[in-house]
Amino acid sequence: MTTSRPGDEQPREQPRRRAPAGAAVLREDVTEAIRSAVFAELAAVGYARMSIEGIARRAGVGKTAVYRRWRSKLHLVLDLVSAIAVQGLPMPDSGSLEGDLRLLYEVTSRALRHPVASQVIPDLQAEAARNPEIAEAMQKALREGQHGVANGIVRAAVARGEVRDGVDEDLALDLVSGPLYWRSVVVRAELPKGYLGSLASATAAALRAL
Question: Hey, how many other C-beta atoms are within 10 angstroms of the C-beta on 55?
Answer without folding.
Answer: 26
